From TrEMBL:
Keywords: Coiled coil, Membrane, Transmembrane, Transmembrane helix, Two-component regulatory system
GO molecular function, one term: DNA binding
A GO BP annotation: phosphorelay signal transduction system
Residues covered by the HTH LytTR-type domain: 214-301
Keyword Coiled coil appears in the UniProt entry: yes
Superkingdom of origin: Bacteria
UniProt-listed PROSITE patterns: HTH_LYTTR
Transmembrane segments: 42-62, 68-93, 113-136, 148-166
This protein's name: HTH LytTR-type domain-containing protein
Keyword Membrane tagged: yes
Coiled-coil residue windows: 167-197
Amino acid sequence: MAFVSCTENFVKTTKKTGVQLANREINQQKQELIKKWDAKDILSDSLVVVAFVIFLTFVRPFGMHEIAFWYAGIFWLIMCFSGYVIYSPTIYFLSKWLSNSLPESLNNAAVRLLLSTCVASGIMALFAPFIINLFFGSFQNYWQSLPMSFLACFFIGGFISGVSFIKSMLFQQRQQLQQNTEQLAQQNEQVESIQKQPAQALINELPLDKRGQLICLQMDDHYLNIMTDKGEHLLLMRFKDALTKLERYDGFQTHRSWWVAKDAVASSKKEGRKLILVMSNGTEVPVSQTYLANTKSVLGIK
């Protein structure tokens, strides 16, 4: 029987000029996720059908307990897969139509699934008596058999459709979570790239053999000592100008003549009452009283 899930996704679209940062707001609109019928979907749905066929074969409901096990299995196999051929397209296309026709208060996946399952059960109820007659030769009055046929189809078809609906919804939620994770990682990379652009401009002023990951800056008279993981180099530059270039970079000032990159701080230690930061290259950076509180806050030092 049919197993098409209809879920709702909210998509927000906004037009912006300039650079779009990671935490931008997105206006979401209702949009149905259209399920693609491919080999993977059919296989997944078929596994649900087979599982229920096995269950019905063991249980043998509707007075079938005297029927041979293998005969009951063939009957339910044909009955259930016939239902799949009817339920799948009926629920799929009817749900799409209902998404554009139902009033907003009733327009949700559960209501659409219920209504489309009722219609699919009605269609299946017209064919089920012929399958029953094919196996058991007990064709009674066709029209009188339709109410019971509908109830049986609605119970079995509705149950399997509900299981398939939950399965598909969980799968789509997992896909959405994976997509959101990938988007977040991409946005974080973009933010990190934007933050490092000013530092790169400063690094580019160093000799090629000294260009690398920024560690710290030290003001020495009129020269600025720039330390990277490749070494250090003196530049004729004001400390203030360097800090301006690094205002978006993830780092902080520890002293009137020192600045450090946060991710380059390897450890910290105390020398008397003074706090010393040990950088990844082994350089020891003093922390003055003026910048002590901020340094402890940034590094989480108590």
